[in-house]
Amino acid sequence: MDILVTGGAGYIGSHTCLELLQAGYKVTVLDNLSNSSEESLRRVQELTGKTLTFVKGDIRDRALLDKLFADNDFNSVVHFAGLKAVGESCQMPLEYYDNNVYGTVNLCMAMRDAGVKRLVFSSSATVYGDPASLPITEDFPLSATNPYGRSKLIIEDILRDLFASDEEWSIALLRYFNPVGAHESGMIGEDPNDIPNNLMPYITQVAIGKLQQLSVFGGDYPTKDGTGVRDYIHVVDLSIGHVRAIERLQGHKGVHPWNLGVGNGYSVLEMVEAFRSETEQQVPYKIVDRRSGDIAACYANPEKARTELNWQAERTLDDMVRDAWRWQSNNPNGYGHN
User: Fold this and answer.
1) How far apart are CA 139 and CA 136, in angstroms?
2) Three-class secondary structure of residue 226 per DSSP
3) Which of the two ends of the chain, N or C, has the fewest CB atoms closer than 10 A to its terminal CB?
4) How far apart are CA 218 and CA 331, in angstroms?
């Protein structure tokens, strides 16, 4: 079965490509490499002993998409391509709407015209906004507190409208919580272009000496220690969720939201302590002002994914920390020259 993976060279995309190849799928990756490296895909092929096809290009390029669909017999599309930093989205909202929303509309038009109507969409827990209670279930009210989250929510609305207009579509809305960790081989992992936006690569880069100290955004939230609480999920568990979603969509039309999370939350300072305890590396940190668009706490109720996808997170916090540190230690410069 042929799968098109947009944004497949990125952090979650590369890990998902690995799981798809191991599950026997034929994979084509479309990625503009704006925040990723083709090296990740070379390593995926080395790890699996299988080949994939890489096409450098942008989902906003309709002619390229039409050629891709004409030249291949795709069964499904897994759609990761998009900008993803909360803080940056507040500074560059137009770029986020152009890349994320327009890009997805363009992709869906090409899919519609090619008759490919199975889509696994990389959504986000940010579509729940600042939740009134925890844990979060899929039927919670939807809102957003920043342009990144709004772009995901707008796309979800577009996809619901698309199914309402044509009930032949099968669409998964995978609402990720906070992906961390790396493949246990230490060969693929998270490789941010600049100062990391996500907590774990920030911690590991401080520990390895690339950054001086961790900035903890906000120490006065109504949480156990004043720092933000999130549901951290191992990227390999998250990637396996995409394979299960593709399997589920084969026989289930409609728009299906699924939370992919562990089901409990850890604060920033708890993550720092877990990292220190597991790796014996010190992580100096400083509490700074809250970051625009952030909320106090967010964690999932993943029961729907367990019952409908036969999926649940299996890797522990210690696994997440250990694998993130192995990746960083083995690749101090990410996918660059180590």
Assistant:
1) 8
2) coil
3) C
4) 30
Between the alpha carbon of residue 257 and those of residues 22, 65, 300, the distances in Å are 25, 26, 13
Contact 320, 264 (CB under 8 A): no
Distance CA 13, CA 127 (A): 20
> In whole angstroms, what is the distance from residue 65 CA to residue 71 CA?
10
Task: Let me know: does 187 contact 168? Beta carbons within 8 Å.
Answer: no
Q: What is the pLDDT of residues 109-119, one digit of tens each?
A: 999 999 999 99
Cis peptide bond N-terminal to 192, omega within 30: no
The amino acid at 133? S
Q: Which pLDDT belongs to residue 337? A: 52
Does residue 151 come out as left (phi exceeding 0), alpha (psi in the -120 to 50 range) or beta?
Answer: alpha
**Which is catalytic among the residues 25, 148, 176, 202?**
148
- DSSP β-bridge partners for residue 180: 234
User: Comparing C-alpha atoms, which of 252, 258, 242 is closest to residue 306?
Assistant: 258
Count CB atoms within 10 A of the CB of residue 326: 20
Other C-beta atoms within 10 Å of 59: how many? Answer: 25
Domain ranges of the chain: 2-179+232-261
Taking residue 258's Cβ as centre, other Cβ atoms within 10 Å add up to 25
- For residue 143, the 8-state DSSP code is B
- 266 in active site: no
Digit-coded pLDDT (tens) for 157-200:
999 999 999 999 999 999 999 999 999 999 999 998 878 889 99
**Both structure tokens of 111:** 């899919």
Q: Which amino acid is at 145?
A: T
Distance CA 304, CA 83 (A): 27
Question: Which one is the CATH code of 2-179+232-261: 3.20.20.70, 3.40.50.720, 3.40.190.10, 3.30.1330.30?
Answer: 3.40.50.720
Residue 320 phi, psi dihedral angles, 5° rounding: -60, -45
